[in-house]
Each structure stands twice: as structure tokens, then as C-alpha cells.
TrEMBL record:
Lineage: superkingdom: Bacteria
The species this protein was found in: Streptococcus suis
Protein name: Gp31
InterPro entries the UniProt entry points to: ArpU-like
Amino acid sequence: MEVLKKFGRYQRQAGLTFSLASSGNFSELPKHHPSKHVDKVSDSIVRKVTAEQEVQYYLDAIELLSREEFKYILKNKFIVTDKLSNMRLQYDLQIGETTFFKWYEEALLEFAEAYKNGKILAELGLL
């Protein structure tokens, strides 16, 4: 899903990293050289705040998923720094390939419904 693939970019812009046991610090201002023009600093701050908001939209949408397994799959495929392979996720969840891909598709659909109140589905004309 294209939207989930953008998470890493927003995460870097926000200056955040995630593991399953960590949470980001949203209070740090971007670092800048004192001689930089004020507009560049304000643009940097706007980009950082926007990225932080996007990161939060992703995390909020994942937390709304109906099953813990769905959350585990999406967090480990898109959110955490050390992403897990499909085979590793199947092993961790103790499920076969068919079940994994069924759950993965269901998780993506639920994410699409939850992300910004269905924005993805609306853009696809499905709402």
C-alpha cells in the first residue's frame, strides 16, 4: 500500500525512530545553523511538524485495527526500523502462508478505512 510505504520518509523528516518498545519524542525542534535564513528555519519547522502529524495518523490508524495480529503485521512491515520478512511474521504468528496473506489484506483494508477517516478509500472512489 503506497501510503504505508511513505511512513519511513515521514519518520525521517520528523526525526523519529520506532521499535515495538519505544515511542517518539515530538518536542525536539529541528537543528539549524544560526546564519541560515529565517524562512528556511520556518520551512524546516513546518516540514517537521507536518511529518510528526503524519506519523501520528499512521500510528492512530494502526491502533484502530480490530485484531492484535493485524497491528503486529503492519507495525513490523512498515513502522519499526528493523522490518520483518513475511516468513518471519508467519513464524511469529504461527500461521501458514495462506492465512498470513489473508490477514495482511484484511489489515491493509482496515488501515485504509482508519487512516484519516477513510481518506485512502475516498481517493480510490470506494467511499
